[in-house]
Specification:
The complex is a heterodimer of chains A (about 110) and B (about 120). Chain A is mainly beta and about 110 residues long. Chain A contains no helices and 11 strands. In chain B, strand 5 and strand 6 form a beta hairpin. Classes of the chains: A mainly beta (about 110), B mainly beta (about 120).
Chain lengths: ~110, ~120
């Protein structure tokens, strides 16, 4: 089965608050992680990625944190907006050669309450 | 993402029919993938191809076949469609030269209903 999982299948957040979406992985050899956002009726879209030699990476309103000690990945969204409502997937690549497809978690649905 | 297109976007068919879903990309990527997504679930890999002569089974390949006609085209066939193949189907591409850091780019999806 997949090594990537999510702690919370659904998350409701008040508009303007910060959101934190969590992901656990079991393969300590995983070297690359990606967060995807999937809006209703659309394909997943890349949000941010992080390599295993980093523990934090920031984008526009998003931050990904990687804790290799406990094999945990999180996506933080600052000042959550209605447009952030979507399903969020984490994905990992545990092939150090890049010759295996990404493994996706089951996703967390983020609902933003206006 | 207009760089990865899928046809048709929606399809309703009957049990036993042969169905082909097509995927084209203009990103120049060598790697292409087909995923299935059921309601409330994640993405399940059906088949993937790392170049024109390479085809690999994913976790749920039974009942499906693929053809990589060219670097830019990767089609998925359901030989004899059954109702539990009703799902959203996504095509994706990635750049093999990126090595480990191979972000995948997804198409808009095809909604398939098998009656």
């Amino acid at each position: 089965g997949e090594s990537v999982g999510l702690h919370l299948p659904t998350l409701s957040v008040q508009e303007g608050d910060n959101s934190i979406i969590n992901c656990a992985y079991s393969n300590s050899a995983s070297d690359y992680f990606i967060w995807y956002k999937q809006e209703s009726g659309k394909g997943p879209q890349f949000i941010i990625d992080i390599r295993s030699n980093m523990d934090k990476r920031q984008g526009q309103r998003v931050t990904v944190l990687l804790n290799k000690t406990v094999k945990h990945l999180s996506l933080q969204i600052a000042a959550t907006q209605p447009g952030d409502s979507a399903v969020y997937f984490c994905a990992e690549n545990f092939s150090n050669s890049g010759n295996t497809p990404l493994v996706f978690g089951k996703g967390t649905r983020l609902s933003v309450i206006a | 993402d207009a760089d990865v297109t899928q046809t048709p976007r929606n399809r309703i068919t009957k049990t036993g029919k042969r169905i082909m879903l097509e995927c084209s990309q203009t990103k120049g990527h060598d790697r292409m993938y087909w995923y299935r997504q059921d309601p409330g679930l994640g993405l399940q890999l059906i088949y993937y191809s790392f170049d024109v002569k390479d085809i690999n089974k994913g976790e749920i390949s039974d009942g499906y076949s693929v053809s990589r006609q060219a670097q830019a085209k990767f089609s998925l066939s359901l030989e004899s469609a059954i109702p539990n193949q009703t799902a959203l189907y996504f095509c994706a591409t990635s750049d093999g030269s990126a090595g480990l850091y191979n972000e995948q780019f997804f198409g808009p999806g095809t909604r398939l209903t098998v009656l």
